[in-house]
């Protein structure tokens, strides 16, 4: 197929990755971003081997590895008292890298020409058009051969084109996130596990540490006047360096979000005419496998490869849907199940977790983790060039 012109809605990680991938295969791309400036709101994330291969396919993998740092969240596990459940052995390498979300976003943004990004462009509607598809920006209508909707969890494209699909559902799971100005060795990273909450520590470059508190919440939208104080209350008496991390976090860096996904009603297709959903617009998922951004990166690479290898947009999008929907929905379901376990509140489950984890050596745990995640981590990207 001869490459045409595409509109990508959303200049987040998924949207920028789609723009890069499409441009690498010859497409003329315009990115529409509703905010006045293309930037990323968030704190930290980890990326697995599959996401790093997707970044390689986009041509930014080496740069990504420069701004990431090893993450030991799957190996260093503790109880709130500070007692180790498991700890990585000296010199043990792990396949995960931790990133400040803004750092990963910036290197993707730098790979897209500024002239290709239009900010302050809030898309209000989607339609079919003679050339393929169109988007509305108020009274203005833009047509393209292809529209990629990477417009997030509360996707306008999904609500407009899939009117019978339910919204992402809250499932009694809420997360606080922050970035502390503190210098920690990467080996200090890990997770602290309690029966209905966990605390994650991820050292980042430039003397920063990303942390997250995930917990059970009975009602969506509950907020505190002082979110930092609420995190301190929920982790009172927990081991070092948790108190120091909270002390070193400016209050305005403490973010609080409820977790919602489509595990209750996954979409029957990610494609509507010449519009393709990508990333959280298609498959919002909990953070418990570290795959939200990673799956968006995979989506972008697979979409561009499908378009490069098909005779027309319709055939390419059918291939994209067939390849991406089963994988992403399975991963979203697996993340949902894992997150449910973390916040279950079951004392019996917590005792079993403590017992089984302490019985394993660090290398055995790492091996079992890799085997358990092989279906996620072993993904290989198609070639774009």
TrEMBL record:
GO terms for molecular function: FAD binding; monooxygenase activity. Signal peptide: none annotated. InterPro entries: FAD-bd, FAD-dep_Monooxygenase_BioMet, FAD/NAD-bd_sf. It comes from the Bacteria. Residues 6-331 form the FAD-binding domain. Keywords: Monooxygenase, Oxidoreductase. Pfam families: FAD_binding_3 (PF01494). PANTHER family: MONOOXYGENASE (PTHR13789), PUTATIVE (AFU_ORTHOLOGUE AFUA_6G14510)-RELATED (PTHR13789:SF309). This is 2-polyprenyl-6-methoxyphenol hydroxylase-like FAD-dependent oxidoreductase. It comes from Glycomyces artemisiae. The lineage of its organism: Bacteria, Bacillati, Actinomycetota, Actinomycetes, Glycomycetales.
């Amino acid at each position: 197929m001869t490459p045409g012109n595409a509109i990508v809605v959303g200049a987040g990680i998924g949207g920028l990755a789609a723009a890069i991938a499409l441009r690498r295969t010859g497409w003329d791309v315009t990115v529409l971003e509703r905010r006045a400036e293309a930037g990323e709101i968030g704190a930290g994330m980890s990326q697995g081997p599959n996401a790093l291969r997707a970044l390689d396919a986009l041509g930014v993998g080496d740069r990504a590895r420069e701004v990431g740092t090893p993450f030991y969240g799957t190996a260093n596990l503790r109880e709130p008292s500070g007692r180790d459940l498991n700890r990585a052995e000296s010199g043990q390498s792990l396949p995960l890298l931790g990133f400040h979300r803004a750092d990963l976003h910036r290197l993707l943004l730098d790979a897209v020409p500024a002239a290709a990004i239009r900010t302050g462009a809030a898309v209000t509607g989607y339609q079919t058009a003679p050339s393929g598809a169109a988007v509305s920006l108020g009274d203005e209508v833009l047509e393209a051969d292809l529209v990629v909707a990477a417009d997030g969890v509360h996707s306008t494209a999904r609500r407009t084109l899939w009117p019978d699909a339910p919204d992402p559902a809250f499932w009694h799971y809420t997360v606080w996130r922050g970035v502390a100005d503190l210098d920690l060795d990467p080996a200090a990273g890990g997770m602290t596990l309690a029966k209905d909450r966990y605390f994650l520590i991820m050292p980042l470059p430039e003397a920063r540490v990303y942390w997250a508190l995930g917990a059970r919440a009975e009602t969506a939208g509950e907020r505190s006047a002082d979110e930092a104080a609420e995190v301190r209350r929920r982790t009172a008496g927990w081991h070092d360096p948790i108190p120091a991390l909270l002390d070193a976090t400016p209050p305005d860096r403490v973010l609080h979000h409820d977790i919602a996904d489509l595990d209750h009603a996954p979409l029957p297709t990610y494609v509507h005419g010449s519009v393709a959903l990508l990333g959280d617009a298609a498959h919002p998922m909990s953070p418990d496998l570290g795959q939200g951004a990673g799956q968006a990166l995979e989506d972008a690479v697979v979409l561009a490869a499908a378009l490069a290898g098909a005779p027309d947009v319709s055939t390419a999008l059918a291939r994209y849907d067939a390849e991406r929907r089963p994988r992403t929905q399975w991963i979203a379901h697996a993340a949902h199940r894992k997150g449910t376990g973390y916040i279950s509140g079951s004392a019996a489950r917590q005792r079993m977790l403590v017992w089984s984890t302490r019985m394993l050596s660090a290398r055995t745990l790492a091996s079992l983790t890799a085997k358990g995640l092989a279906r996620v981590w072993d993904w290989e990207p198609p070639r774009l060039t």
